[in-house]
């Protein structure tokens, strides 16, 4: 792994070092009082790392500290990578955003939409329009996640063996076929609902490219960007670098280690989840953010054009709506007010409505184990935060990070 550390004085890139130290002071409390085992935070500006801190334990029980090269399960921070992969194919003319996905995934040729009834006897009607590639990229396809637990269609997914895993022996193709048999939560394009849409997008990438998702990612994204430690599982000889996974159960004040959930990252999975399957490092994901911040190119490797990156990171919700108006009322780590959604990213529309100090046009996402990143093009800023705590809604880490990082901008 290439060296990764602080390579510029904060003041040289318009950042206040004293304010950045407040980030560490605040986050250290989470470890010192037992709420987190450990964490790592990176703040870079103009392509230079100005702040990089590790604190606490990657594995508390083994007294193994967080190191610069610690491996983390990034879960839904996989989604922007899958979205970039899809748009790389789009730039090659492989599909149009308005194309029905059934052209490549015939199981979606005649989707039906839930209108009433129980999980045992759902009432459905035919979809009024096909699920299109754009719907997958924007989470407006009508698909869902079993773990939402707010709608009958969520329950239908659980009854088919989907929640935080998939039925034994299922590969990605089998998962997509099963999801296509379950009624949609709403008509395609009618609402926003966080869902398995990005996993379906991953399968679309496989069919169009003729490569499995892991091979496509490795050859087309990870190798060109020098993301040497990012993959769908942690190799056996590197498992000493993998952070332990912790969960905070309702009613408990301290998290518990969960090896049953954490072991999923230790062997090649039966299915390749474009929505949440990757293991990565802070260094690797920082390089991914730099590629985006640099308009699709890093160190001579161009993945996308600047115009495509700009198009992906603008709000695509109809009428310029935010997630509060167009989305379903689901659990969220941050407020939906003032935030739209692009092609694979949340996009800040109005920081005032969002009640968070940030910039219009900042784009971001996070992972189920409380990891997070954001990119702010107007400030030439990127931030990556890593830890391993489920659920990601346990603590307001994402809003607090912005509250502490943005006051460090002084130019």
From TrEMBL:
It holds the Pfam family Beta-lactamase. It comes from the Bacteria. InterPro entries: Beta-lactam-related, Beta-lactam/transpept-like, Diverse_Enzym_Activities. Residues 23-395 form the Beta-lactamase-related domain. This is Beta-lactamase family protein. It comes from Stigmatella aurantiaca (strain DW4/3-1).
């Amino acid at each position: 792994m290439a060296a990764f550390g602080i390579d510029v004085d904060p003041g040289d890139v318009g950042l206040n070092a004293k304010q950045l130290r407040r980030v560490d002071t605040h986050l250290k409390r989470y470890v010192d009082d037992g709420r987190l085992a450990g964490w790592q935070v990176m703040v870079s500006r103009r392509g230079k790392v100005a702040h990089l801190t590790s604190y606490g334990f990657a594995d508390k029980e083994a007294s193994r500290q967080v190191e610069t090269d610690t491996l983390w399960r990034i879960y839904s921070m996989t989604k922007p990578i899958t979205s970039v992969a899809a748009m790389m194919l789009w730039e090659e003319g492989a599909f149009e955003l308005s194309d029905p996905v059934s052209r490549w995934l015939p199981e979606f040729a005649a989707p039906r939409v839930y209108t009433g009834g129980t999980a045992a006897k759902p009432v459905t009607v035919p979809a009024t329009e096909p699920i299109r590639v754009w719907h997958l990229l924007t989470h407006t396809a009508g698909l869902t996640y079993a773990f939402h637990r707010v709608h009958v269609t969520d329950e239908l997914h659980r009854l088919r063996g989907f929640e935080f895993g998939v039925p034994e022996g299922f590969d990605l193709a089998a998962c997509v076929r099963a999801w296509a048999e379950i009624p949609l939560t709403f008509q395609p394009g009618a609402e926003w609902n966080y869902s398995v849409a990005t996993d379906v997008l991953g399968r679309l990438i496989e069919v169009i490219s003729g490569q499995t998702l892991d091979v496509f990612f490795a050859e087309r994204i990870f190798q060109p960007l020098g993301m040497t430690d990012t993959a769908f599982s942690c190799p056996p000889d590197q498992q000493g670098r993998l952070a332990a996974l912790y969960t905070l159960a309702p009613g408990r004040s301290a998290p518990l280690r969960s090896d049953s959930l954490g072991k999923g990252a230790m062997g090649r999975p039966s299915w390749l989840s474009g929505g949440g399957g990757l293991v990565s490092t802070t260094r690797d994901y920082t390089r991914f953010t730099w590629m985006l911040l640099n308009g699709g190119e890093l160190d001579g490797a161009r993945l996308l054009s600047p115009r495509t990156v700009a198009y992906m990171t603008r709000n695509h919700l109809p009428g310029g709506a935010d997630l509060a108006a167009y989305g379903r009322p689901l659990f969220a780590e941050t407020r939906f007010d003032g935030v739209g959604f692009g092609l694979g990213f949340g996009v800040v529309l109005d920081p005032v409505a969002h009640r968070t100090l940030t910039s219009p046009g900042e784009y971001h996402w996070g992972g189920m184990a409380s990891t997070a990143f954001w990119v702010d093009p107007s400030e030439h800023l990127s931030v990556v935060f890593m830890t391993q705590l489920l659920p990601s809604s346990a603590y307001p880490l994402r809003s607090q990070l912005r509250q502490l990082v943005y006051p460090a901008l002084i130019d």
